Amino acid sequence: MDALQIQNLVTLVGAVLATAGLGGVAWVVFTEMRLRAVRRTRLAVAGGALDASPRAKGVAVGGQVVGAISRLGQQSAVRDPAKLSVLRAQLMQAGYFNREAPVIFLGVKAAAMVAATAGVVLLVLPMMMKGDGGIAGLLIACGFAVMAMMGPEQVLKGRRKTREREYAEGFPDLLDLLVASVEAGLSLDAAVTRVSDELVRRYPNLTIHLRMLVLELRAGRARKDAWTSFAERLGIEDARMLATMLRQAEEMGTSLGETLSVFSQDMRAKRMLRAEEKALALSAKLTVPLILFIFPCLLGALMLPAGVRLMQIFGDK
Description:
The chain is mainly alpha-helical. It has two domains: 3-132, no CATH class; 165-272. It is built from ten helices and no strands.
């Protein structure tokens, strides 16, 4: 099989995939238009009057977009409902607490696939129809597919890592304030409320989880269950250790102030060890930039005058 036959085969496969993608986009658009027509009919029958102001129109358009994304996500959720609980926990760790967040996230992934398909159809299909962009079109299609499949996941992962870093940095301060509040005579629930008021400026995302913990405790949930749920929402090991320690202290009847004090000292020691670890790893991390960037510049600055002098000497002779 020569190069021309390979190019024709790639063009044919790309055209078939692009046509299939265009049909899928047309089906999604047709379904959405049909649902909008049914909704308008119901509103007209009910006699509801819609606000014609620009703001109301913008809100209505935004609601329609979110509704369309939610419907796409519901289709994915129905196909694989077992992953919803895991996805919900990941979204809560990333800061999305809405009940519809998993469905919207799945809908965003489906919408990204639709957008990638439309991009392939609009950009790659003309190139393949000309017959001179088979390999380039295939690479562009692969790039769109990778961005559509991995883009939402990477955004969620990055947001989770950012939040977990903030939680890990603020957890020792949280424990210090808890120890000070409990030793001052406050109960654990009142201490959590006080700490959430103190940390709101420095660690606002951590404060959200603390306030959710306070609401769960006020609603009558068991303390060990509330702290376990708090640890699962944060997703860091220190929070899980604290929840386990509080459960054991409650079951064994030990002093809560002494237990929190010992745990706080342990957290401070771990924070110091992490700082020392980063400081010791700094020299190893700087080795590659020194070799690649600084050392060639230094070598050039030292050798360039000698090279120029040698050129002048040999030039005179």
